[in-house]
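Researcher: Structure prediction, please.
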Amino acid sequence: MSKPATSTSLPARIWLFVLGAVIVAAGLFFAILGGKLAALGGSLYFITAGIALIVSGLLIVLRKPAGALLFGLVVIFTGAWAIWEAGLHFWPLISRLLALGVGATVVVLSYPLLRRAAGKTPAYGASFALAAVLAIASGAGIAGMFVPHPTVAFNGEVAALKPVTPETEQKNWEHYGNTAGGSRFVALDEITRDNVQNLKVAWTYRTGDTPISPGANGAEDQETPLQVGDTVFLCTPHNNVIALDADTGAEKWKTEINAKSTVWMRCRGLAYFDAKAPLKQPTAPGSTPVTPAIVADGALCQRRVLMNTINAELIALDADTGAFCPDFGTNGRVDLKIGLGDAPDPQYVLTSAPTLAGTTVVVGGRIADNVQVDMPGGVMRGFDVVTGALRWAFDPGNPEITGLPPAGQTYTRSTPNVWASMSYDPELNTVFMPVGSPSVDLYGATRTPLDHKYGASMLALDATTGREKWVYQTVHNDLWDFDVPMQPSFIDFPKADGTTVPALVFGTKAAQIYVLDRATGQPLTKVEEVPVKAANIPNEPYSPTQPRS
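Model: Predicted structure follows.
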């Protein structure tokens, strides 16, 4: 039944205009990006749905009830398409239907206004009832996002489980990333994909180091423990070191350091050294030999754990007792602020585990972000694992400084730093360093040519001498804190001829993954220099291109 058209109130007209405009915008989004998807071989659905939504939105702007009916048809066909394409699995369905379901609820609630504008009865009852159903369904979909759902079955070929032989069986976890090359893979076969769901807690140990507060301003447990034989070694956010029985969790020893910083208190891991283990020399041609490091028979610290602290010390402890190593630095401690100049808390702290590179302990350091242009430098240093003596330094602001800076000088201030974990290749005797930005992450006008060279890069140094082998940059003049935040992992990269190349792979904050030749630093996968648009900050040396892997 219809009646003569009635005037529509101004608020109703404004609402219908806004609703229609939003639907038109959504239709344009579907149609334009759907076209790009179709060009890549994707579904044509989004183009057709987008065109229908544009027409629907325009009709609603014109206050035509047909706009709501067309929107309803889009929802119905989308539901059918979603089930056809994704089946009845929750996550694929919710990603396709939730937005349109919420939109349909609003459109149905607005349907009486459209009918009144067309001179028809509003049909409040049917509209509100349908809107309630849609609202409940959408609410159920949102609630369903917070409960577990069955795993979507994998339809591909499942690789067979590979038995572990006595030769390949994992014995220890002696490095932060399991291996010196950060594999994080454990060759064990007692736990498999078929029984992992049956694991139960064997024991719990409480460190007694309670975080002061969550987030960047407090203390957080972020560590990866070490396991050597029947002992687990761990460190706490205040750099207390604990040894536990791996089978029972019973405490063997605990050494309290109780280091403190006003921000960012955490210890991500330790390094381990066994003076009685065979010294592995590099095999690659031209590699520098590893310097021997000897602990006298019967002396303390034949086996030792090493840790850099948030208040900038490098500490060596006896792995069997937790006692400070008397032959290391000053009573087991090395001051890492020597040569930095002014470095008050919390401008220079060390959070990632030190890296054992042969017999050299390599450390970087975290420089506080965006505090001021005059900050401690990001110098990387290598120390003798037994004596704690400085073997080398690499100053990215002045590579000619290879040890302590000259008297009265400091390492170059505010240079790029290495705050994340490093990797070490014993075959090349090379340590690989993920390099961050200069101390002011978001402003480049004060940067030097060397800042531009080393910032946001992967840097390879000789582990014995600290001299540069190669550097590969992932962001030019990084203005977004898109530095390299992770330890690189080693792989054998397959070539077309069936041979492999020793490679490293790592990700960046810019969502890029790079695969580089370990010996040369050259990319083994395609990397393009893509033109980018500059902004207009005065004196900012914008890069005209950025690498895209």
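Model: The CA atoms of residues 535 and 542 lie 8 Å apart.
Researcher: Thanks, that helps.
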